Amino acid sequence: MTACVGDILREYFALRVEMASVVAPPGKPGERHTGLIHSILARTEERLAATLDARAIELADRLQRLEIMLDRLVRAYLIHTPEVPPELRDRAVASANRRYGLYRKFVKELLAEQLAQGGSAAPSAAAAKGSTRSEGEA
Question: DSSP for 56-123?
């Protein structure tokens, strides 16, 4: 998102300089410009700033929601999962790493399938429901 916003702003400022250069700036340096082009540019800047602020607030809200959901998930996991005895931890870590690798491989394949079919890179709800492959099939 940051790179996209940066590209848009660079393009906008380049356009602004180009548009403003065709008209002689009215008034003295430091005074508010009241020409038509300058007024249009000022209003455009205000709209851009308002839109960016709204999107930033929306993204911050979504991020906070995700953080809360992740926190609740970890808490539920810790409540419902017994601790691994010290003598079994090495095997448990090896098993977790193997299963996690299979999970990552499955997600990568799922995303590749969706992109190949012209879909988005984000897994859809339908794809998530259809992903009932067992650990050994991934």
Answer: HHHHHHHHHHHHHHHHHHHHHHHHHSPPPPGGGHHHHHHHHHHHHHHHHHHHHHHHHHHHHTT--SSP
Conformational region of residue 118, where left means phi above 0, alpha means psi within -120 to 50, and beta covers everything else: left
Q: In the structure encoding, which two tokens stand for residue 29, read together?
A: 């340096």
Tell me the average pLDDT across 49-76. Answer: 93
Residue whose pair of structure tokens reads 């926190």 in the numeric block:
71
C-alpha closest to that of 25 among 40, 16, 35: 35
Residue 125 to residues 94, 110, 131, 135, Cα–Cα distance (Å):
31, 12, 10, 20
pLDDT number for residue 74: 95
* Residues contacting 92, CB < 8 A, separation 6+: 84
- C-alpha span between 7 and 1 (Å, rounded): 10
Say if residues 110 and 127 touch (Cβ distance below 8 Å).
yes
Token pair of 33 as six digits: 């410009």
pLDDT value at residue 1: 64
Report the predicted TM-score, pTM, of the whole model to 2 decimal places: 0.48
Q: What's the rounded mean pLDDT across residues 55-78?
A: 95
For residue 135, the model assigns a pLDDT of: 42
